[in-house]
Write a structure and sequence with these properties.
The complex is a heterodimer of chains A (393) and B (151). Chain A is an alpha+beta fold and 393 residues long. Chain A has one domain: Peroxisomal Thiolase, Chain A, domain 1 (3-Layer(aba) Sandwich), CATH 3.40.47. In chain A, strands 1, 2, 3, 4, 5, 9, 10, 11, 12 and 13 form a ten-stranded mixed β-sheet that branches. A two-stranded antiparallel sheet of chain A has the order 7-8. Chain A is globular, with a radius of gyration of 20 Å. In chain B, strands 1, 6, 7, 8, 9 and 10 form a six-stranded mixed β-sheet that branches. In chain B, strands 4-3-5 form a three-stranded antiparallel β-sheet. Chain B is mainly beta. Chain B folds into two domains: 51 residues, no CATH class; 81 residues, OB fold (Dihydrolipoamide Acetyltransferase, E2P), CATH 2.40.50. The chains are: A alpha+beta (393), B mainly beta (151). The interface between A and B is large, with 45 and 42 residues.
Chain lengths: 393, 151
């Protein structure tokens, strides 16, 4: 059964993104933005949208494939897929589902997409104002623990205590994203540079997270197109071959009331192992990394669990210089990511990873062969993916 | 001696706790009304389990019960919240939320608030004891489990 792998069998051949907006600032409804992103991705790939025969998304995206397929006049729908679980944990997972569908012949041209319009719909980051919290929420909400920031700060606080990690490590991640966003005219925080002093003076949201440790909330839509490696060679763009894409959750990570047996974790220990095994590479081979920042503390644990450094090396390794696209040891979040480009639930990290393979990023790292994404630390399930300029590097 | 208070740490208006629609945690919330701490436990393999579930995660038995445990624990993690995630909290910032480990119940963990000065230094590993916070005027009445550092 050596053939049971996705390695090199599929590629991302098109990317499409609407303009990215501040929260509730989009002039268009969410569904229309998703249509726009899909059409842009098809145009980018040189594929007729009528030939799109599959859609995959995550985080209970509201724009369902049957409606998308009908609205776009696609000839038929062969794959209509939702990755379960909240937050951005399904970004790479949706890519892996699309790739699996293509690799096994369920569909030929699958769009992975995400749309968000928080003016039209509700916000993240606010607790429920219901009168009663029944079930697992009863163990947290009455104590004022209601938001994602609070849910995850508890894990990060324990990890930082266990390994004596300073606030400067989190700050380095925030400064990196903002520095890269200043070169990216599409970034919502373009023209809004952030200094170490700005970070230090910013208000706490929940310790150990300052304002700038938390992702933005934004409006927009993004889409990428997955097809077979054979077909990818003949299309318009340089393919970003999917070398590996993994998804899942460690033992009982979703135990309620903060009872996962392994607590100070990004939930990537098993998923990172599975990704590297599938891709046949290790962390030292990665040229550029997009690591999902819901909160910087999650990036920290995710990078450790993906083997980029040991916990006791974090204080030394986590500097803006080491993560900068020019001359950095590990160029990180080179578009500005969720903190400073756009919170497109991490799909913008996948488009950036593809741009790094193509050589078209605003913060282009030279000679990228291996480009990696980790999606949604600390949620359940999480996912990750590795892209390559060759199907079999 | 059990600690109890009728003074709420957080302002009125936050959601009241309730068992799940499957009935999970009914015994727990009934217990807090009597100022007792009860944790789910498997009758077959004796595994402690929290939050409560429909079957034992160890042996998968459905034969689960609740057992009363001493209302004490250790601080496993903590956070100080400065942002009002709910309108009721806007005049009560900051406040402390803690994650408490219960060594006497298989190291299960419970979330609560740490009573006292919200700016107090919080030390992971500190011994704490439960304070049962009665909300007798709520309909139906309920009792939260809060924590205070052992003196």
């Amino acid at each position: 059964m050596t053939d049971r792998t996705l390695r090199g069998k599929t590629a991302i051949v098109g990317v499409g993104e609407t303009r990215y907006y501040k929260r509730a600032a989009a002039p268009d409804p969410e569904f229309k933005m998703v249509l726009e992103a899909v059409l842009l991705a098809c145009e980018d790939a040189g594929i007729d949208v009528k030939d799109v025969d599959g859609f995959a998304s995550y985080s209970n995206d509201r724009n369902d494939p049957p409606r998308l397929s009908a609205a776009l006049g696609c000839k038929e729908l062969k794959f209509s897929n939702m990755f379960w679980g909240g937050g951005g944990g399904g970004g790479s997972g949706a890519v892996s589902n699309a790739a699996a569908a293509v690799a096994t012949g369920l569909a030929d041209t699958v769009v992975v997409f995400r749309g968000l319009a928080q003016g039209q719909f509700g916000r993240f980051g606010q607790g429920s104002t219901a009168n009663v919290a029944a079930g697992p929420g009863a163990f947290t909400a009455p104590y004022g623990l209601m938001s994602p920031a609070q849910t995850f700060a508890m894990r990060a606080m324990r990890f930082m205590w266990e390994h004596n990690i300073g606030q400067e490590a989190l700050r380095a991640l925030s400064l990196t994203s903002y520095a890269h966003a200043q070169r990216n005219p599409r970034a919502v925080m373009h023209g809004r540079p952030l200094s170490a002093e700005d970070y230090d003076n910013s208000r706490w949201i929940v310790e150990p997270f300052h304002l700038f440790d938390c992702c933005m909330e934004n409006d927009g839509a993004a889409a990428v197109i997955v097809t077979s490696a054979e077909r990818a060679r003949d299309l318009k763009q340089k393919p970003a071959y999917i070398l590996g894409a993994s998804q899942g959750s460690d033992y009982r990570q979703a135990a309620t009331a903060h009872n996962s047996p392994d607590y100070p974790t990004s939930n990537f220990k098993t998923v990172a192992r599975n990704l590297y095994a599938q891709a046949g590479i290790g962390p030292k081979d990665v040229d550029v990394l997009q690591s999902y920042e819901n909160f910087t503390g999650g990036v920290l644990m995710s990078m450790v669990e993906h083997g980029f450094c040991k916990p006791d090396e974090v204080n030394d390794f986590f500097t803006p210089e080491n993560f900068y696209f020019e001359g950095g040891k590990l160029p990180l979040n080179t578009s500005g990511g969720n903190l400073a480009e756009c919170y497109m639930h991490g799909l913008e990290l996948i488009t950036e990873a593809v741009k790094q393979i193509r050589g078209t990023s605003f913060c282009q790292v030279p000679n990228v062969n291996i480009s990696m994404v980790t999606s949604g630390p600390m949620v359940q399930p999480v996912s990750n993916s590795i892209y390559s300029s060759e199907p079999n590097p | 001696m059990t600690n109890a208070t009728k003074e709420a740490y957080l302002p009125a208006g936050l959601p009241a706790p309730a068992p799940s629609s499957e009935g999970l945690a009914t015994e727990f919330w009934d217990g807090t009304r009597k100022h007792e701490l009860w944790v789910q436990r498997c009758t077959k393999c004796q595994t402690w389990q929290w939050g409560p579930e429909c079957c034992c995660h160890n042996c998968n038995s459905f034969d689960l019960t609740y057992e009363q445990v001493a209302p004490t624990g250790k601080i496993f993690s903590w956070e100080r919240a400065w942002y009002p995630v709910h309108p009721a909290l806007k005049d009560k910032l900051p406040y402390l939320t803690v994650l408490i480990e219960l060594p006497q119940a298989g190291n299960v963990r419970m979330v609560g608030n740490l009573l006292g000065d919200p700016m107090q230094q919080v030390n992971i590993g500190s011994d704490v004891e439960a304070v049962f916070e009665d909300h007798d005027d709520a309909n139906p009445p309920y009792t939260l489990v809060q924590w205070i550092v052992k003196s």
